[in-house]
Design goal:
Layout (H helix, E strand, L loop, with lengths): L13 H6 L9 H27 L6 H24 L13 H27 L3 E6 L6 H37 L2 H14 L9 H21 L3 H17 L13 E5 L3 H4 L11 H22 L4
Antiparallel strand pairs: 1-2
Length: 305
C-alpha cells in the first residue's frame, strides 16, 4: 500500500563516492589534480631526456633546458586535464583573450616593476645595498642586449607556466574541491614547495614564497583572469633580477645593475633574494594597493562593482 511519501534518494555505490564528484559525472578534484601531476612529471622527464639528446649532451644549459621542458609539460598536462578531466574549456581557467587581457598583462608587469624599484630604494636608503655600476660599462651593447632579451624570454615562459599551474589548475581545482580559502592556502604552499630545490633556500625563503603565492592569487581573485598574475610574475622576476640585480629565488642570473647586498639577511633575504627577507612586506603592500586600485577601475568599467 502506497502512502504517497517520496522514496529516499538512492545511495551511490562506494566507488562512485570515492572517485566521482557528487555534482556531476567527472572525477573528484583530488583525483584530477593527482592525474595532472603525474602527467606533468612524466612529460617533464621525457622532455628533459629528449632535449638532452637533441643538444648532444644532458643539461648543457640547465636553466634554459628546465624552463623549456617545464613550459611544454605544464601547458600540455594542464590543457589535457582541463579538457578531459575537468570537462571545462581552457578559457574558463582565466585565459580569455581580448584587449583587456593585454592590459592586465602589461599592468601586472608595471606593478611588479614599481614594487622592485621600491624594494631597491628601501635597501639603498637603509645602507644595505651598494651600487657598483651598469652592465654596459664592462660589456658590449650586443652582449647586453642578448643577455637582457634572453632573460626576458625565460621569465615570460616561467610566468606563463607557473601561473597556469599554480593560480590556474591548482588553485581553481582545490577551490572547487574544498573551498576558496583552502584553495589559496594549499596552492600557495605547493607553489613554495616547488621552489625547494632552488639555491640558498631557507625557512624564511619558503615563508616568503608562500606569501608571494597569496599575493599572486590576489591578482587572480580581483580579475578572475590569469593575465594579471602572469604579468606580475614576469615583471617580478625580470625587474628583481635582470634590472635591479637581486637574486631571483636564489638564482644568480644576468643583470643590468651590478650591486652588492650587505644588510642583515632577516631584512634583505641574503643570497636567496628579497623573497626571503622582511623587505618583501612593504613591497607586497605597495603591490596589493596598486592591484586593488587597478582592478577597481577595471571591474567598474566591466560593470562588476
Amino acid at each position: 500500500m502506497q502512502n504517497g511519501s517520496p522514496s529516499p534518494p538512492r545511495k551511490r555505490p562506494i566507488l562512485a563516492r570515492i572517485f566521482l564528484s557528487p555534482e556531476e559525472r567527472r572525477l573528484r578534484a583530488g583525483w584530477r589534480l593527482l592525474i595532472q601531476t603525474l602527467l606533468w612529471l612524466v612529460l617533464m622527464f621525457g622532455l628533459v631526456i629528449l632535449f638532452g639528446f637533441i643538444s648532444g649532451r644532458f643539461f648543457s644549459n640547465q636553466l634554459t633546458l628546465s624552463v623549456i621542458a617545464s613550459l611544454f609539460s605544464v601547458t600540455i598536462s594542464v590543457f589535457l586535464a582541463r579538457k578531459f578531466l575537468d570537462r571545462r574549456s581552457i578559457k574558463s581557467l582565466g585565459l580569455k583573450t581580448d584587449l583587456r587581457a593585454l592590459w592586465d598583462l602589461l599592468v601586472g608587469i608595471g606593478i611588479a616593476a614599481a614594487m622592485m624599484a621600491f624594494i631597491y630604494a628601501l635597501e639603498w636608503a637603509s645602507g644595505w645595498l651598494s651600487f657598483e655600476g651598469f652592465a654596459w660599462q664592462n660589456q658590449s651593447m650586443d652582449a647586453v642586449l642578448i643577455g637582457t632579451l634572453e632573460m626576458l624570454l625565460v621569465f615570460i615562459l616561467v610566468g606563463w607556466e607557473e601561473e597556469l599551474l599554480s593560480r590556474g589548475y591548482h588553485l581553481q581545482n582545490l577551490a572547487a574541491g574544498i573551498n576558496l580559502t583552502w584553495g589559496v592556502i594549499l596552492s600557495s604552499l605547493i607553489f613554495a614547495l616547488m621552489h625547494l630545490g632552488n639555491p640558498n633556500v631557507s625557512v624564511m625563503a619558503v615563508l616568503g614564497t608562500i606569501t608571494a603565492g597569496f599575493f599572486l592569487a590576489f591578482g587572480y581573485l580581483r580579475t578572475r583572469q590569469l593575465w594579471l598574475p602572469i604579468g606580475l610574475h614576469i615583471g617580478w622576476n625580470f625587474f628583481e633580477g635582470t634590472v635591479f640585480g637581486f637574486q631571483v629565488s636564489g638564482l644568480d642570473i644576468y643583470r643590468l645593475v651590478e650591486q652588492t647586498v650587505q644588510g642583515p639577511h632577516i631584512f634583505t633575504g641574503g643570497e636567496f633574494g628579497p623573497e626571503a627577507g622582511l623587505i618583501l612586506i612593504p613591497g607586497l603592500a605597495l603591490g596589493v594597493a596598486l592591484i586593488y586600485f587597478y582592478s577597481g577601475i577595471r571591474n567598474k568599467e566591466q560593470g562588476l562593482g
